[in-house]
Amino acid sequence: MAQDSSFARRTPYDKTVLNAVCWLLQIALAVFLVVQSAIPLYQGGAYNIETFERIGFGQWFRHFTATVEVAGAIGLLIPALAGLAAMGLVGVMIGAITTELTVRTAAGAVLPAELLVLFALVAWYRWPQTKALPDLARRVLSRRR
Questions:
Q1: What is the 3-state secondary structure (H, E, C) of the chain?
Q2: What is the pTM of this model?
Q3: To bridge 57 with a disulfide, which of 61, 66, 72, 133 should be the other Cys (CB 3.0-4.6 Å)?
Q4: Residue range 107-131, pLDDT digits in tens
């Protein structure tokens, strides 16, 4: 008889391993976002300055993008917010892919596309926590009254 490998039939050990792998991915993505993306955007190398000039919004948008990436990186490290942060970062990567395809080169869209897939995986895996956010917020707010 073939084994059912669906996620619902996994053992608690399997879920623990998957959770650990997801946390390692989230940590790696957070470090990457800060070190390889946000810091260079804040520093404003010639490539980044030129890219944001081509976009046409001005350099404030470069700083805004870096700040959103740092906020997303922090969100990836907060258990209750990790899925929501990953979903937001999917949106950031859609913007990055669009920018690369319209103002730079198609080859430049590869890395944001890969990151989009990784953020989407985190968002999918963390969906139960994300779905529970309204209940968590309600409980927290009811304690303050």
A1: CCCCCCHHHCCHHHHHHHHHHHHHHHHHHHHHHHHHHHHHHHHCCHHHHHHHHHHCCCHHHHHHHHHHHHHHHHHHCCCCCHHHHHHHHHHHHHHHHHHHHHHCCHHHHHHHHHHHHHHHHHHHHCHHHHHCHHHHHHHHHHHHC
A2: 0.84
A3: 61
A4: 999 999 999 999 999 999 999 888 8
Q: Which two tokens stand for residue 23?
A: 């946390």
* Dihedrals phi, psi of 10, to nearest 5 degrees: -75, 155
At 31-50, the pLDDT tens digits run 999 999 999 999 999 999 99
